[in-house]
Amino acid sequence: MASCFSLNAFESHSLADQSSSALMDRVDTKYLIDAAELNQCLAELTAEYTVLEMNGCRGMAYDTLYFDTPGRQLYLDHHNGKLNRVKVRTRHYRATGERFLEVKVKTNKLRTSKQRMVLTGAEPDARILRHFLQEQLGLPATRMLPALFVHYHRITLLSRTGHERVTVDTDICFEHSGEHQRIGLPGVVLVEVKSLRHQRRSPVLDILKRMGHRPVSFSKYCIGTALLCRGRIKANRFKPVLSKLDALRAPREYRYFKESSWNLQLMSISLSA
User: Fold this and answer.
1) Any domain includes 127
2) What is the domain range of residue 32?
3) Which residues contact 109 (CB under 8 A, 6 or more apart)?
4) Fewest 10 Å CB contacts: which of 67, 116, 168, 184?
5) pLDDT tens across 174-222, in order?
6) What are the angstrom distances between the C-alpha of 35 and each of 5, 101, 250?
7) pTM higher than the cut 0.90
8) CATH number at residue 27
9) How many helices (H) and strands (E) in the chain?
10) Contact present, 90 and 235 (Cβ < 8 Å)
11) CA-CA distance, 64 to 49, in Å (whole number)?
């Protein structure tokens, strides 16, 4: 749980503070570290960063449901190295109860953009959803099916300059939306640093480098799919990350669950007419 890690030494910031620090022309850098190293890393950042606090909570639960075509075309686009690629997902912020439908686009210029719309009511209007997705994707939205559910806890740090944001994801779990099989990553922490493209100094990157960590390419959707479909789907491109996960989990084992305890209905949306 995110609450296991000490965040009391950090000063806090609000969501409004975070929203005002837009990072439009940015570089995203990801790291996988062992949870045992997280406290050491956080302890060295208290003077340089503040932590997001909402409703008295400093570790937020996130639920994300990714969509793909029946043949997992969006997964294969990423695996095959297509430069222009997209991710489609719904996201639920448990702290606020808000839900969004999001389309994340990465271009051949390594720029990432995200468009989203608020989901309201138990069953959002399918026509509005289809129109939004077709505008963003340029393909029939009815081809999109629920593909992978991801749950995790997130800590968000903001540099005092406002030029850098750091997300720390723990308790990452993946679940097939239709097969009721889950896999967790106990003891694995995903750290993502979003910084200005020409920023010269980053305290958190300096610390991670000193601790011996190197950047990794990590997509929750692709890695979760590769883990749950091992032997049934192409995954050569993700072998370095899968090997890193294998190393981090030793001597722990991945936790498989045959029955789901999550209510995916909250995250699902209907795109049918």
Assistant:
1) no
2) 21-95+144-259
3) none
4) 116
5) 998 666 688 889 889 999 998 876 666 789 999 999 999 999 999 999 9
6) 9, 30, 12
7) no
8) 3.20.100.30
9) 7, 12
10) no
11) 26
